[in-house]
Design goal:
heterodimer; A: alpha/beta; Rossmann fold; eight-stranded mixed beta sheet; three-stranded antiparallel beta sheet; 11 helices; globular; B: 617 residues; alpha/beta; 3 domains; seven-stranded mixed beta sheet; binds iron/sulfur cluster
Chain lengths: 343, 617
């Protein structure tokens, strides 16, 4: 792999990544599934346990590092990405993962989020989006839908929510994806792609908080409804969905629409092809903005995956170049360079 | 009095010069060049740059005046001088603002061309002060600096704007002549700085020389002055500002301990220069990260510290306010971290470019919970070097955040620095834990420090965080007695540093009744004041605290030895408050918060008064 991370052959089992700490999320919480998928997929990413660090902020999801047997740092609210950026910049040899939530990452940590995306620090950022503040017991979050009735919005929230993939794309993120907590296989695939991507990999995970926002994503999970509401993205494939795979996404001068492939006037040729690696983020923005449009399915999978130099690598290369040019600085040079005189 | 080219040459022991002009007139550059050359010819010196927060305030305004004061001498000196002997005023506003400070019978050199009606009105002069008796009592030299600059660049092909921008070099050249300093160092600097712009380099060179020769030819000046070399201890010297000394000290510490240095920082006046310097030291294994905000500055440093780097964040008071929560995280996770606070006038945005010492309570106490950190302070520009190394030594030895306090005055002020020999530097080492036997993330060594483990070390994978920890295992723990124990343990760990620092030294008349006790950047003023009074026969003792938390173990004993203790501070009595509450000693304060260093004459008056006037001799 092109990353700086050492990828010697290592044989782990999922349980090798479980720490000795009791997991303390509410029974039934979507976090359990995410933890399980991460532990299942980690033996396959080929990185030694000691070379992995999990960094988190504050919130239910941010307890994540305690449950992994890797290095971990449960920090303060909103700052996970800033800490992870420092760690990765100082130690590009580590595989650095961030567990964060919609409150931690979109609200108090919003500034660090956009700047991490902009700099393209080689981090894997899993944002557990349950559209609620869980740990503080149920206030609306920056991703809660308008009108949401919570403890802090008894008459309904008047806030417009953030659209996380759109925000990430606006901040020039090079890898933007979405997955669903209980859709195990798909989540695992997305995690692997995130790991393989060099640069900031942002994965929004729809996560059910069964205590304060139960059923938020049921439409996307329920056997009966999910196929009509979920658009599973596949690179190079037409964007089709529906129980019988008979609906497609069309994009023309009228904009975006859902077409019925049973209708003779429509053909598979009319359906937009998904391209993860499109340099132009337009396609990815269209996908991101389907999210709150009820006439549209909700896309999951990789929205965008493009190559760009990473911050940590560039810092390292610059340091090496300057050192090669000027030579390794010594204490003698440090102190005695410049205009000196003798007394 | 010697005679040279028809001019008298008069010997002086010391001179204080102030350059003043518009913020766009290049006064800081002029002052810095004059200082560097003055250092090179062997004088002792101390400088005080004083500039407005606006980068280019509207030309000619009073609030746009930028000044640079420098005090140089053939003796050992400690302050940039209270009042200038010589004022160079590039425009009426500069004269207006600075005139009140010039010593009686002092010298004023003005750029006569700038005293035109519009500029006079802007500066609030109803009548041209060069034409009435405003300046009687001073030696005034009217020099048409703008037109002489223009004359010397007539054929240069440069625009009028470019030509006028060179006029500070004329003033500099003239001052070099007047004080008998060589122009070569500045010529060399011009060539290095403007190498890529030969037309500008050429112009500045010409104008500098024109200024120098003007002094020689004109009849305006009949006397030149010479200030002999100072008797400084033997060694290799360079002129250095506090911020540069801090930067070099941090790099030196990393080199001594053989660890990578990481700086996470956000630009803020007056601390940004440390970021600038460190970002140039890449070949010393220094990584600098200019963060998106103050919080990310410290957070990235904490991340790097977790990764095994000697991690630093640099800022000023408002930035410390933003970093506060993260400092608490470093306390809880017991990671080494150095926070440099170059203090400036507060509260809020306050006086960004001016100096103050009002962050002491913030440094020691300003966090939620019981969150002890070590706090130390540099006392002079060159002391920043030593204290930066000391901050790093304490941080890695005790696995603790350390705050290093400097201030705008010593950060921007410069003085000659006797460069230490490599073998004179303190020694300390970093040992990352690699041994897996009996590893406990919050196990403790003889200093109560927990082990520093670099991620990547097999078998030592562990988790840390901001939740309360159980001792030894480092597991999250909410038990009442554990929290009580851990709060005490963290406090004890930091207090224990008192066993590892020098004791508080008293100098001067050790057996006097009065002790003047300072901390930080007031050292120069206090030292000068005490020295001057002792020469006059007053009995005064002096001590300076460089370690504020914990304090040297003998602090109480020293305080209790004196009938009276005076604490001069550029705040409303913060150290005094701490000493009173810690040691129950009556202390008196001398406080001035003008955004400037304390004045030696005012402090001397205060001391004399405390000694009962002339009877105190
Ligand atoms: S409050 Fe919600 S998000 Fe938090 S652990 Fe419980 S179920 Fe999960």
């Amino acid at each position: 792999m092109e990353n700086n991370i050492d990828v010697e052959e290592v044989k782990y089992k999922a349980k090798d990544f479980a720490s000795d700490q009791d997991v303390r999320w509410c029974p039934g919480c979507g976090d359990y599934s995410v933890l399980a998928q991460v532990q299942r997929v980690f033996p396959e990413i080929g990185v030694k346990k000691e070379d992995i660090a999990w960094i988190s902020g504050i919130g239910c999801s941010s307890r994540f590092p305690y449950y992994m047997s890797t290095y971990g740092f449960h920090s303060i609210h909103g700052r996970a990405l800033a800490i992870a950026t420092g760690l990765k910049t100082a130690r590009p040899d580590l595989s650095v993962w961030v567990a964060t939530g919609d409150g931690d990452n979109m609200s108090i940590g919003g500034n660090h989020f956009i700047h991490t995306c902009r700099k393209n620090v080689d981090l894997n950022v899993l944002m557990f989006n349950n559209q609620i503040y869980g740990l503080t017991k149920g206030q609306y979050s920056p991703t809660s839908e308008e009108g949401k009735v919570t403890k802090s919005s008894p008459y309904g929230s008047v806030d417009h929510p953030f659209n996380p993939p759109s925000l990430a794309l606006g901040a020039e993120a090079t890898f933007v994806a979405r997955a669903i907590d209980t859709n195990a296989k798909h989540l695992q695939e997305v995690l692997k792609k995130a790991m393989q991507h060099k640069g900031t990999s942002f994965v929004e995970i729809y996560q059910n908080c069964n205590i304060f926002n139960d059923g938020a994503f049921d439409e996307l999970k329920d056997k009966e409804t999910k196929l009509d509401h979920l658009l599973t993205l596949e690179d190079g494939q037409p964007m089709i969905f529906g129980k019988n795979s008979d609906k497609g996404i069309k994009f023309d001068c009228d904009g975006i629409s859902v077409i019925d492939l049973n209708d003779k006037n429509n053909s598979i040729e009319d359906v937009m092809i998904h391209r993860e690696t499109d340099i132009n983020p337009m396609r990815a923005f269209i996908l991101a903005n389907m999210t709150y449009d009820h006439s549209m399915p909700t896309p999951v999978g990789v929205f965008r995956r493009v190559q760009k130099s990473t911050y940590d690598e560039s810092v390292k290369v610059q340091l090496e170049k300057v050192t090669a040019k000027k030579g390794v600085g010594t204490l003698q040079n440090l102190l005695y360079s410049g205009n000196t005189w003798e007394v | 009095m010697a005679n040279e080219n028809g001019k008298d040459l008069q010997s002086l022991e010391e001179v204080t010069v102030r350059f003043a002009g518009d913020s766009g007139d290049g006064m800081q550059l002029t002052g810095t060049q004059f200082s560097n050359t003055t250092a090179l010819v062997g004088n002792d010196l101390s400088t005080l740059p004083d500039y407005p927060a606006e980068i280019r305030a509207p030309a000619g305004t009073l609030y746009g005046v930028s000044g640079f004061q420098l005090h140089f001498s053939s003796n050992d000196i400690h302050t940039p001088g209270d009042n200038p002997d010589v004022l160079v005023a590039m425009n009426p506003a500069a004269l207006k603002i600075n005139l009140k400070d010039v010593k009686p019978h002092g010298t004023i050199i003005v750029n006569k061309d700038a005293f035109e009606p519009k500029a006079l009105a802007q500066a609030g002069f109803a009548v041209n002060p060069l034409e009435d008796d405003t300046l009687s009592g001073f030696k005034v030299h009217q020099v048409p600096i703008t037109s002489l600059t223009q004359n010397s660049l007539e054929d240069s092909g440069l625009t009028t704007k470019e030509i006028t921008r060179s006029k500070n070099f004329f003033a500099l050249g003239l001052m070099y002549w007047l004080y008998n300093r060589p122009i070569e160092p500045t010529l060399k600097w011009i060539n290095e700085k403007f190498g890529k712009l030969p037309a500008i380099a050429d112009a500045n060179t010409k104008v500098l020389k024109a200024g120098y020769y003007f002094g020689d030819q004109t009849e305006i000046f009949s006397t030149r002055y010479a200030v002999k070399k100072a008797e400084l201890p033997e060694g290799t010297y360079k002129s250095i500002s506090g911020n540069e000394a801090t930067a070099i000290g941090l790099v030196a510490a990393a080199k001594i301990a053989n660890v990578p240095l990481f700086l996470g920082s956000y630009p803020i006046t007056p601390a940004s220069d440390i970021l600038h310097y460190l970002s140039g030291y890449k070949n010393y294994n220094v990584t600098t990260l200019q963060a998106e905000d103050e919080i990310a500055g410290i957070a990235s440093a904490i991340g790097a510290s977790f990764g095994g780097s000697l991690a630093i964040t640099t800022t000023s008071g408002p930035g410390v306010a933003l970093k506060t929560e993260a400092i608490g995280l470093a306390v809880m996770t017991e990671l080494p971290l150095v926070i440099v606070n170059v203090q400036r006038g507060g509260p809020s945005t306050g006086l960004p470019t001016k100096t103050e010492q009002a962050d002491l309570l913030q440094a020691i106490y300003g966090r939620n919970g019981e969150a002890p950190i070590a706090v130390i302070a540099a006392s002079t520009p060159t002391d920043c070097f030593d204290m930066a190394i000391e901050a790093c030594r304490i941080a890695v030895k005790y696995m603790t955040p350390v705050m290093l306090l400097t201030d705008g005055y010593i950060a921007n002020g410069a003085e000659p620095w006797r460069i230490p020999k490599i073998e004179e530097l303190p020694k300390f080492e970093v040992k990352y834990r690699t041994d897996t036997a009996n590893f406990q993330p919050y196990g403790r060594d003889e200093n109560n420090a927990r082990p520093w483990v670099r991620p990547g070390t097999p078998g030592l994978e562990h988790r840390i965080g901001g939740l309360e920890k159980a001792n030894l295992t480092g597991n999250v723990n909410y038990e009442p007695d554990n929290h009580d124990m851990m709060c005490r343990l963290r406090e004890e760990k930091v207090l224990n540093i008192a066993n590892d620092i020098p004791s508080l030294d008293v100098v001067g008349d050790v057996d006097a009744d009065l002790l003047v006790l300072g901390w930080g950047g007031t050292y120069g003023t206090i030292t000068e004041s005490v020295n001057k009074l002792r020469k006059k026969g007053y009995k005064v003792a002096q001590a300076h605290l460089k370690y504020l938390y914990p304090m040297p173990k003998n602090t109480e004993e020293v305080l209790k030895k004196y009938k009276k203790v005076l604490i001069p501070e550029i705040n409303l009595g913060q150290l005094a408050k701490i000493l009173k509450s810690e040691f129950l000693v009556p202390v008196e304060s001398f406080n001035k918060m003008r955004g400037l260093p304390l004045r030696s004459d005012e402090l001397q008056e205060c001391i004399i008064e405390m000694l009962g006037g002339d009877n105190g001799k």
